[in-house]
Amino acid sequence: MALIECPDCNNQISDRAVMCPKCGFPISGRGMGYEYMSEATLFGLPLVHIANGLDPSTGRPRIAKGIIAIGNIAVGGLAVGGLSFGVISFGGLALGLVALGGAAVGLLLALGGLAIGLVAIGGGAIGYYALGGGAFGVHPLGGNAQDPQAIEFFKSYLGPWIEQFQRGRGR
């Protein structure tokens, strides 16, 4: 590890530093990520905002905010990210009206490993109508429960697949 001089304040810093600890000046953009924001806007938000990495002025993670938001943290109409909040949300942890992700919380529909929503479909599903390996709610359909109203509800959307699901359980 060698010491170099900060181009802004002349402080001695590590050559591996992302930014100067004294003045915050970004050192050759390493680790700072990427950001794109469309000029077109709708409701005061950019139509597309893509952001990842750190904000060089604050050192904090960038947050994508737009009608279409894509980034490590995304907030928008259509949000895609590790942590996403949106009307339609895709991500590791997805929160929205419709959410799809590893852990999904959707007001209307949630699809994911763990799904929580009005209609929840996942390995673990918690909802008014729940379909999954472990299904919990008012009308569950899964390895642990087979509510007749849930069967009819999911059959109307998933058709023959639900019948195969039931046959697989020996019914």
What summary fits the major beta sheet? 4 strands, mixed
The portion of residues forming beta strands comes to over 45%
Stretches where pLDDT is under 50 for at least 5 consecutive residues are: none
Number of domains: 2
Can you give the mean pLDDT?
Answer: 89
Distance between the termini: 67 Å
Radius of gyration: 23 Å
Q: Percentage of helical residues?
A: 10-25%
Strand and helix order: EEEEEEEEHH
Number of helices: 2
Strand order of the largest sheet: 3-6-7-8
Q: Got a strand count? A: 8
- Principal-axes geometry comes out as elongated
Please tag this protein with its features:
single chain, 171 residues, mainly beta, 2 domains, two-stranded antiparallel ribbon, 2 helices, 8 strands, 56% strand
Structural summary, described in words:
The protein is mainly beta and 171 residues long. It folds into two domains: 1-30, no CATH class; 31-168, no CATH class. The protein is 12% helix and 56% strand. It has two helices and eight strands, in the order ββββββββαα. The chain has helices spanning 148-158, 160-168, and strands at 3-5, 12-14, 34-37, 41-42, 45-46, 48-52, 64-136, 139-142. The strands form three sheets. It has a four-stranded mixed beta sheet with strand order 3-6-7-8, covered by helices on one side. Strands 1-2 form a two-stranded antiparallel sheet. Strands 4-5 form a two-stranded antiparallel sheet. A hairpin with a 2-residue loop joins strand 4 and strand 5. The longest helix is centred in the last third of the chain and has 11 residues, at 148-158. It is elongated. It starts with a strand and ends with a helix. The relative contact order is 0.06.
